[in-house]
Automatic annotation (TrEMBL):
Lineage, uppermost ranks: Bacteria, Bacillati, Actinomycetota, Actinomycetes, Kitasatosporales
All residue ranges annotated as the CHAT domain in the record: 608-855
Alphabetized InterPro entries for the sequence: CHAT_dom (IPR024983), TPR-like_helical_dom_sf (IPR011990), TPR_rpt (IPR019734)
Pfam families: CHAT
UniProt source species: Streptomyces marokkonensis
Protein name listed in UniProt: CHAT domain-containing protein
């Protein structure tokens, strides 16, 4: 019962002990309590009860009972870090038991071998156990043994063998009532899905397993470890670190298994390394190494050493000793049959390259490069990264570019299996190094055109295809409705000055649930989208009247300006990216001040900052922009720059795009038939959304949604397929969860996840509210936010705001913008003319600068 209904089993065992049982029954009861404490509670209590169970078994004079207890005790001692004692107890259990009992003991010793990382010994013991368990028609223990064998196969990279065993075990579990074991089987299938490269399925199965464990009230430390692995592969390293650290605290709180603590520390170290927190990674990995060494777990200790070496390298501690350590770890991983061996060789090669040891680097990188030919996507990526570094060291730009192309193709295929736009964006971080290597190689050997191609190759790729539409999942839809209601109640309570901690807790819970369900979606796109073509871009710019596109690439911290137009691509070197980011923050602070009347004295300061920004971002290219329209394609880290503030851009038709490819798609997007207009007015605006009433008169047949009609379901219905939408509503950007950035409607927030449910978002959309053009920068060079959610869904042009603005000053800007649209102008043209029509005071000028036209409509 202890794995079918753990709480009930514990209560029954304690009841048995309260009735002065016979020695045999006392032994069973103490063993059950020991198992419960071992897996779900305090290891000290577990060992105490299991020793008493062994003593009662000896009194009962039952060799079979004693063998069974010795096996359970052996597993507990191994989990407590007392490896030698644990293996000794298991050996004596095997010697004491016979037949069926002995097979169960062999299974538990196999499990212990797996915990210790001795996979060959684990396979040998489980191989001996399974036929006997099958012959005895022991369904439960046969299913456990098959699950264990599958898990060992996974550790050794034999995914197909693991799948066969998991399938056989699941068939057996369906005939039993072992709820904990069933949850474990679902968890194991999640691990198998992850090993085969299916991240969404892995996340879905692990969430399902957690739900099952939750019903049983049992801790989920192994699941935490596995989910950390999947989260890291999905680019969610910070979340993996938070999950691992929280699980460590919970484990320490109950005095749980030392083995699990070491594994959680290793997961935390890996996550910290990926989250660019090398000091945290060093601390967690060093402690994991000590624990694994004390537990005599060579497999695990070696993996922890790999993470520790990588973290030390990331912290700038390169040395010959570190090269030797990485090489030794690589050799040991090969001997252990661990799939991580190429990663260690790549690390040794990297450190050697940093030291200028080219011969050593070539030796290690050549070994790592072998993995590019097969295995899961991220393993092949490791191989191609090694091959690219080999080519770079050999001075072969062509070899670098070929390796980078092949590696990024692998990551493209992996990325497009992910349905959620967030996962697609974050997954690109794994290709950042290859993209940077290719840019450097193209800068040296290929000229501006090739640098443009490689800048585009890994920029805003999450926008290259629409995200998978969220499923018509009743639980997801009801969760979003509940979220909206709770958020609206919390906002109302805040406005009344009431405390809202309970509502905020429920809101966070619903956010986690919504996000979790969207991350389960698999991608539908068959490839990574259209490949970028420089000739096509130049032809489009020529057809548009000698406009120019300015793409900003960043190499070694410096901005490279690629000026595209007039049938050529030219390169100019500008300033340092870090200095530009600092100046952009100063400008944002200045715009916030200017949003309030009486701040006119700040205007010269902001304009001076705009001149400095132009020098840093455009440099000498500013003098070559000509007179036509300009499209700016900035890197993600510069998304908050108010481009209209730069002197050379202030009086011209200006639009911004996340990538040149995205601009081309927007340019080639046809408007929907019918020309339907939708005007939305949300609650709580200082002006009451005054422009909406005027616009309703201008667009006679427009759909106007305001007051009780401006609800999220109604707004979404009307927005779907509209030609033009104007939304006057309070905007809120969520840096901690960009896809929960929102526009406030009557019934609560309209969030980015809502927009992703549209079949086609409006062709043009104007967001006359604060912070709608703010984004979170993730992955290699990706942006998550409201505007970037709209662009892949059919929206060709957006006007949005990157700073807080004065509501009253927005009204004349918006009315002038629509006047321009009435005459057939594009959004960028109309916004330029609208700025020029405003009064020349600081308040109105700052309001105009805060708004940007995105896309090409």
């Amino acid at each position: 019962m202890v794995f079918a209904a753990p709480g009930e089993a514990l209560a029954r065992a304690e009841e048995v002990l309260g009735d002065r049982p016979a020695p045999l029954h006392a032994s069973v009861a103490h063993q059950v309590i020991g198992i419960w404490q071992r897996d779900f509670g305090d290891m000290r209590l577990a060992l105490s009860h299991l020793r008493r169970a062994r003593a009662w078994a000896a009194r009962a004079d039952s060799a079979e009972r004693e063998a069974d207890v010795l096996a359970t005790l052996g597993v507990a001692l191994v989990h407590a870090g007392r490896t030698r004692q644990g293996l000794d107890a298991l050996r004596r259990g095997v010697e004491r038991g016979t037949g069926h009992t002995r097979a169960r003991v062999l299974f538990r010793r196999a499990y212990s071998w797996w915990v210790l990382g001795h996979h060959r010994e684990a396979l040998e013991d489980v191989r001996r156990a399974i036929p006997v368990l099958r012959q005895a028609d022991d369904v439960i223990w046969t299913a456990r043994a098959l699950t264990l064998r599958a898990t060992v196969h996974l550790a050794l990279g034999a995914v197909e063998r693991a799948d066969a065993d998991f399938t056989a075990a699941e068939t057996l579990w369906d005939t039993t009532g072992q709820e904990h074991d069933k949850a474990d089987a679902v968890e194991s299938r999640g691990l198998a899905a992850f090993r085969s490269g299916d991240v969404p399925a892995a996340l879905r199965l692990l969430d399902e397993a957690e739900e099952r464990y939750g019903k049983l009230g049992t801790p989920t430390f192994m699941l935490n470890i596995r989910r950390c692995e999947v989260l890291m592969a999905a680019g969610l390293a910070a979340e993996a670190l938070a999950e691992a650290d929280a699980a460590i605290r919970a484990l320490d709180g109950i005095g749980g298994q030392s083995t699990r603590k070491a594994e959680l520390l290793l997961a935390a170290a890996r996550a910290a390394r990926l989250a660019d927190e090398p000091q945290t990674a060093i601390a967690r990995a060093a402690l994991a190494v000590r624990l694994f060494a004390g537990q005599r777990r060579t497999w695990w200790e070696t993996h922890a050493r790999l993470v520790l070496i990588g973290a030390r390298h990331a912290a700038g501690r390169g040395s010959g000793r570190l090269v030797a350590d990485a090489a030794a770890v690589a050799e040991k991983l090969v001997a252990l049959g661990a799939p991580a061996a190429p990663e260690a060789s790549l690390l040794a090669g990297r450190i050697a390259l940093d030291l200028g040891w080219t011969a050593d680097a070539e030796r290690h990188l050549a070994v790592a490069a072998r993995s590019r030919r097969g295995g899961p996507p991220l393993a092949r990526m490791t191989g191609w990264a090694a091959q690219a570094l080999r080519a770079q060291a050999a001075g072969s730009a062509r070899g670098v570019l070929e390796a980078c192309r092949r590696g990024l193709d692998v990551l493209d295929d992996h990325r497009m299996t992910l349905g959620a736009s967030e996962l697609r964006a974050r997954a690109t971080a794994q290709g950042a190094e290859l993209a940077a290597l290719a840019q450097q190689a193209s800068l040296v050997s290929g000229g501006p055109r090739q640098l443009l191609v490689w800048s585009e190759r890994w920029r805003a790729t999450a926008l290259s295809a629409p995200p998978t539409r969220p499923p018509a999942d009743p639980a997801l839809l009801s969760g979003m409705t509940a979220y909206r209601e709770i958020a609206a109640r919390a906002e109302e309570a805040r406005m009344e000055g009431k405390p809202v901690p309970a509502l905020e807790r429920e809101q966070r819970r619903l956010e986690r649930e919504i996000r979790s369900r969207t991350l389960h979606m698999r991608g539908e796109a068959p490839d990574g989208g259209d490949r970028f073509d420089v000739g096509r871009l130049l032809a489009r710019l020529r057809d548009g009247g000698d406009g120019q596109l300015v793409e900003l690439a960043v190499l070694d911290g410096r901005v490279q300006v690629l000026l595209c137009g007039r049938d050529r691509v030219r390169r100019f070197e500008a300033g340092l990216l870090a200095a530009a980011e600092t100046e952009a923050e100063h400008v944002q602070a200045g715009l916030r001040r200017l949003a309030h009347p009486g701040a006119d004295s700040r205007l010269p300061v902001v304009e001076a900052a705009g001149r400095r920004l132009e020098e840093l971002l455009l440099g000498p290219a500013a003098a070559h922009l000509g007179d036509g329209p300009v499209v700016i394609v900035p890197p993600g880290r510069l998304h908050r720059v108010p481009w209209a503030l730069l002197p050379s851009l202030r009086e011209r038709v200006l639009s911004v795009s996340p990538s040149a490819s995205s601009w081309l798609r927007a340019k080639e997007t046809a408007p929907p038939r019918g020309g339907r207009q939708v005007l939305v007015r949300g609650p709580g605006l200082a002006t009451g959304g005054a422009e909406v009433s005027v616009l309703a008169g201008r667009y006679g047949g427009a759909t106007v949604l305001e007051y009780e009609d401006a609800t999220v379901p109604r707004v979404l219905t009307e927005l779907d397929g509209a030609a033009l939408a104007h939304i006057a509503a309070h905007g809120a950007f969520r840096a901690d969860g960009p896809l929960f950035s929102s526009l406030r409607m009557t019934d609560g927030p309209l969030i980015v996840h809502d927009f992703e449910r549209l079949d086609r978002s409006p062709y043009r959309i104007i967001l006359s509210c604060c912070d709608t053009a703010r984004f979170a920068t993730v992955g290699a060079d990706e942006l998550l936010g409201l505007v970037t959610a709209l662009l892949p869904l059919g929206t060709a042009g957006v006007v949005a705001c990157s700073a807080p603005v004065n509501d009253a000053a927005v009204v004349p800007l918006m009315l002038a913008l629509h006047e321009g649209l009435d005459t057939g102008l594009s959004l960028a043209q109309a916004l330029r003319d609208a700025r020029a029509s405003l009064p020349a005071d600081a308040l109105h000028r700052a309001t105009g600068w805060a708004f940007t036209a995105f896309g090409a409509a």
